[in-house]
Amino acid sequence: MVDIAALMKALPVSSIKPNGVAWVENLIKTPRDQHWLEQIDLLEPPAGQRVPYINPVSTLIILLRRQGLEPQEAKLRALSAASRMRIEVADDRWVNFFDFYDSDAPDCLPVPDFVAWLNNEHRCVQRPTTGQHHETVLIPSDIIEYLGRVGEVASTEPLFYLCGDWEASRSLQNLPANPPAEAMVEYFPGTQWPDDEWFERWTSPENPFMQWRESMRPIALDLEKALGEPVYYFADPTFDLNDDRAHRVLVLHWFCTHRPDSTFVRYLQKVTGAKDVEEPP
User: 125: buried, middle or exposed (CB in 10 Å: 19+, 13-18, 0-12)?
Assistant: First the structure.
């Protein structure tokens, strides 16, 4: 049986895709109009958690480039370090967030865990060798301390806005434990993954998403009659500024049926105990 409560706890409060809480930029030189490509993003955590999450690979690439490494070398070092990190940090600390633009969402972990691992790399240098040979990633202590402080501020300062409550900002400490009703229905532009063969012609009737979308019309109508509230708004797909809006359970149904092998769907299976995407709740 699928653990629905665990499913809700695996997703952010605001939407399926986590909102950004804060970011760090200007650690390396970037074109003024592309600074967002080289920034460290601190992400909204899963429901019930109170500290931001971070992508260790993209973060390490920036930190290593700051130390003078060329982009390709920094990437290789970052991937190697993240592989060790994935083994050394407990499995239940890792999350694969959904990303509309990446079907294989990266592993992310809480900022305090990332900072602790970086600090441990310095301690490892002082220890006798264990016979295992790997290149230690030594990020300057002042940068590690700075990231830790940024994580603390992002946890406690009112930087976050919830759907349906745009007037008052909140801190992660003050987020509700479960998604509010307004956050359960969200904008749903369909699959936007660049590696999808339908990316450039996604409004085509032959697109699997459009076929799934049509199959949802009678189901959405039945659910609306039963619940007394609409669960799917079908927009005009030829109008670029008008996206569908759908209940997150229906959105998850599409992702799970379309890309059951994606890291995001595999993560959901793991946390809910589902054997596969066909297992009923």
Answer: exposed
Q: Indicate whether this model's pTM tops 0.85.
A: yes
> Encoding tokens for residue 58?
């993209």
* Nearest C-alpha neighbor of 144 from the set 110, 106, 109, 112: 112
109 bridge partner residues: 54
Would you say 71 and 35 are in contact if contact means Cβ atoms under 8 Å apart? no
Question: Both ends of the chain: CA-CA distance in Å?
Answer: 5
16 touches 187 (CB < 8 A)? no
Q: Quick check: 75 and 55 in contact, CB under 8 A? A: no
pLDDT in tens, 169-225: 889 999 888 888 888 888 887 665 655 666 566 667 788 888 899 999 999 999 999
Model confidence over 82-109: pLDDT tens digits? 999 999 999 999 999 988 777 788 999 9
Instruction: Based on DSSP, count helices (H) and strands (E) in the chain, helices before strands.
Output: 8, 10
Residue 216 and residue 235: Cα distance in Å, rounded? 13
Question: Which two three-digit tokens encode residue 26?
Answer: 């200007």
Contact (CB, 8 A) for 60 and 147: no
Q: Alpha-carbon distance 231 to 188, whole Å?
A: 12
Of residues 85, 52, 80, the one with CA closest to residue 64: 80
